[in-house]
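agent: user wants the full assembly modeled, not chains individually. Plan: 1) parse entity lines 2) check alphabet per entity 3) run joint structure prediction 4) return tokens. Steps 1-2 passed, two entities, 295 residues total. Proceeding.
--- entities ---
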Amino acid sequence: MPGSMNIDVADQRSDEDLFMACADDEPGAFRQLVDRHLRMVRRLALNVLGDVHEAEDVAQEVFVSVWKARIDWRPDARFATWLHRIAINKAIDRRRSFRGALRISPEPQDVITRLADADPRAAAPEDAQGRLERMESAKGLRRALERLPASQAQALTLFYFEELDVSRIADVMDCSEQAVRSLLKRGRQALKSTLQKQKKICSHGHRPVQSQPQRPGSRS
Amino acid sequence: MDIARFKANLNALGADLERWPPDEAEAAVALLAASTPAQDLFARATADDLLLFGDAGPDVDGLTDATLQRIDSET
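--- prediction returned ---
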């Protein structure tokens, strides 16, 4: 049973060592791997599928496949690289079958009902620690944005938080679409550099937490 | 779509294909299905998105348990 033991302290072993321990049926080893990678796998699937419920189902499928492969797996490549490729391929398969089904039957009642009822934020209550981490991360993001050149910060804000497309941002900022893309690229690079430095400072002396912060203006 | 254009889009627009122009998103999916270098770039950009903007999804604790239960029932 892959998750039969809950381990409170994060395991320090590499992914590869943990996965090889799974082949020996070490209790709790696979749960550690799921804890480490589930958000990333779900996000990969979400980026391909655009639907959080489908993405979560694909994420489960991915880990079922990974569990089944544990005996024959050899550490020829990084575990994470292998895992991510499985996730992307499964998400593409689901996207194709999902969109094919929608083309055949444009208004399947169960899909309409599920989409109408969908409220991903309500799926699980967030604990106080999670809220605190998200608030701290949002503050860090705001500080990092404030340090960017104004045009980069504006382009990033309009694209990622106001969710305008590039052509609309070009209109708003009175520049070309290519200029907007350039601002977004440079802004992302600068933001990444700043946030990585912040995380290094925050994690000095203790392990970084696994939880991810809330994205303002997120997709629902 | 070639890998250079794919990478340029990732660098500017991020890895959420819903935010790409629809025709480019479809071309990106075709490239992803055929190219492991494209998959690795996509994974890296997805990790960047998580670092920069966090995770919009619900908490994963319930999903972790559901995943492990599904493994128990299917294996």
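agent: reporting back. The domain at 129-203 of chain A is CATH 1.10.10.10 (Arc Repressor Mutant, subunit A). The longest helix of chain A spans residues 177-203.
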